[in-house]
Amino acid sequence: MTPLQRTLIETVLIALFGLLAGLALNHRLILDAFAGRLAAPLPVAAPANAALPQPVLLAEVRDLAAAGALPVDARDAALYAEGHLPGALSLPLGEVESQLPAFRQQVAVDRPLVIYCNGYGCPDSFDLGLRLIEAGYRDVRVFEGGFPEWRDAGLPVIEGER
Amino acid sequence: MKRSGRVSYHLCRLLLGGVFVWAGAVKAHDVPAFASQVAAYQLLPYAWNYAVAATLPYVELLAGALLLVNVRVKPAALLLLLLNALFIVVLASVVARGLSIDCGCFGPDAGTTPFQALGRDILLLALAIAVYRQHDRYVPSTA
Q1: 0.90 surpassed by pTM
Q2: How far apart are the C-alpha atoms of B57 and B27, rounded to whole Å?
Q3: Among A26, A54, A66, A152, which residue's beta carbon has the most beta carbons within 10 A?
Q4: Minimal CA separation from A67 to chain B, in Å
C-alpha cells in the first residue's frame, strides 16, 4: 500500500468514526426527524414575517424547544427568578426598550421564539411578540397557557436569575 | 531555519485542531439549534438538516482532537481540508443566492455573516494545506 492510499483510507475511517459517533449519540433525534415526528418547523418552513405572533399549545412548545426555539419570558425579572422554562431568556415587557439591544446581540433574528407570561388573560406575551416582530424577528409564537400551564403539567422549572 | 519551520508546523497543527475541536463542541452541545442553522442554508430536505447537524460536529471534533494530540495528523488534516473546501462552496452558494443568514459555523449565537465566514474558511483551508504538506518534512515516517 502506498503512503497516499494509506492516508486516504485513514481519512475515510476518521470521517466514518465521527459519523458513527454522531449517529449513536443523536439516533433518537434523527429517527424522529425522518419519521416526521419533529413538528417544530425549522426556519425554512416557518411562517416568514407573519404579522401577528402565532399561538401555540403546550405540546407544541415542547417540540419547538426541542427543535431549537428559544423560550422568552415576558414577566418581571423577579417572577422569572422564582421559576421559568428551561433555557428561557428574560425580557420583561416593561423593560423591552432598554433590554432589546442586548437581546438582539444574543439572539439571531431567524431563531424561532416562543413567548410566554402568566397564562391566559396575560397580554404581555402577545404585546412583546408584536414588538419582537417589529424588531425583525421572523418566527414569533405565543404560548398562551404560559408559565402556570407549564408548571401545572409537572414539566421542569428552573429557578434563578438570568 | 529548520527549527523555526518545525515550530510553525506544530503551531499550525495546534491552531487548526483547536479551532475545529471548539467548533465541533459548540455545535454538538445544541444539535437542534445547529439543525435550524443548517436549514437556513436551504440546501437539504427537512430531515437531512438534522442528520447533518447530528453528525458533522463529531467529525470536526474527532479530526481536531487527532491534530491536537498529534496522532494521524495527515489524514485528519486532509479531512479538514476537504471539509473546508466543501464549506467554501456552500458559503459561496449562500452569497450567490443573496441569502442573509448566520453562518452557524461556531454555534447559534456567533453572528457571523456569510462573507466573514468565507474569508475565515479560506484561511483555515490554507492552514489545513500547510499542515498536510509540511507533515512529512517535520515528522519522520514510521511506516
Answers
A1: no
A2: 6
A3: A26
A4: 5
